[in-house]
Design a protein that fits this description.
It is a single chain. The protein has helices at 58-74, 87-100, 114-119, 137-141, 165-170, 180-192, 209-217, 234-248, 261-267, 279-289, 330-340, 343-353, 366-369, 372-380, 393-410, 414-428, and strands spanning 50-57, 78-85, 106-110, 144-145, 148-149, 152-158, 160-164, 272-275, 299-302, 316-323, 356-357. With 432 residues, it is of the alpha+beta class. Helix 8 (234-248) crosses helix 16, helix 9 crosses helix 10 and helix 15 packs antiparallel against helix 16. One of its GO terms (cellular component) is ATP-binding cassette (ABC) transporter complex, substrate-binding subunit-containing. Belongs to the bacterial solute-binding protein 1 family. InterPro entries: SBP (IPR006059). It comes from Ornithinimicrobium cerasi.
Amino acid sequence: MRRIHLIVAFSASAALTLAGCGRDDGTTAGGDGDAPAQTGEAVSTEGASGELEVWAMGAEGEALPDLVAEFQDQYPDITVNVTPVPWDSAHDKFVNSITAGTTPDVAMVGTTWMGEFAGMDALDPTPGSIDAGKFFEGAQDTTVVDGTSYGVPWYVETRMVYYRTDVAQEAGFDEVPADQAGFKEMAAALKDAGAEYGISLQPGQTGSWQTVLPFAWSHGAEIASEEGYTFNTTEMVESVEYYGSFFAEEIANANPPEGQTEADFTSGNVPMFISGPWMMSIVEDFAANEGEDGFAEMYDVAPIPAGASGESSSFIGGSNLAVFQNTESRDAAWALVDWLTQPETQVKWYEMTSALPSVQEAWEDDALTADDKLAKFGEELQTAQAPPSFPSWEQVAEAFDGEIEKVAKQGLSAQEAMDAAQAQADSIGTGQ
């Protein structure tokens, strides 16, 4: 069984939380509901030529040169130069390059940056020749800003419930309940059975929206319309009240020690948490270092429990590929993007980096189907969604995280928290 290794975070926030992508009420922010996204002028990739400067962040920037060597074998008239960019300086580097007119030809772009960069007229619209239908819907929606697609999803991730199967059975549960009421009962039962806490949940602070919103979406909440943010709806307030109840009833720790998730999970002190696929290798490696053999058989993953909507819907993160308007080799640039999103290339990239494919067909490969837990993440990606592609999202998310922290740590009511989040979001605006 191939292990999943930690993927560097994909967003622009200072803490490098995972980037969000936009599907809320079935529309993309600024889009036209079910209308297909507008696309750019066609390109001719056959016989394309030119020299491309490509920027990629983190581990992807280090690994990409080895992969594109195969691309250059197929396109001998295209030269690709990859520049690795540190995540902590990437956003400012992009903004400065846009301002100065010195952007790369192609770049890995955090999904929450799409609205901002498109709003600066920096990105080239995606050619209609690229099949948008091959990507997970939630991932494809992250490329769409004001009704036009700019780029393609490169790789994805989503969140699921991790739980200790042995501890759950001791508490009387053979599996995680699919409904939110039953899920909370299970978490309480795990604590009653001897765990210190039944579940680890993020009590606000940077990036907590990535855990809160899956519960809200699974309850039928919508956090935005085409006109703006919608945080103080009945469904959203009910979801935050539900989330806050785990802390109020001390089922989850409102002040968890930092960096304790894997230790608490492997010891059984906190036998349930929510995270992405990279945590599989982390908890298994931690257990192995503690002398716990066969830990992979002691836990499993399950979908986010559904509320009133009746359907589990998790957060989808990842990173996109975009071509910049200033490129002098547009055909070559899109030839590279198209090649990087072919199913066989996506599987190779997964084998090199553990970055999960954004192309659905790639998930049919044995490299991804052989791991039962990983396959469940692929299923969860089918309904995963994320915040809208408004340029202001990261600023609004910070305000939202602050209100969730007040709910978790100070007992602020969900209604008061969401009214405050809405007021701040209205003040900030969409940024369009």
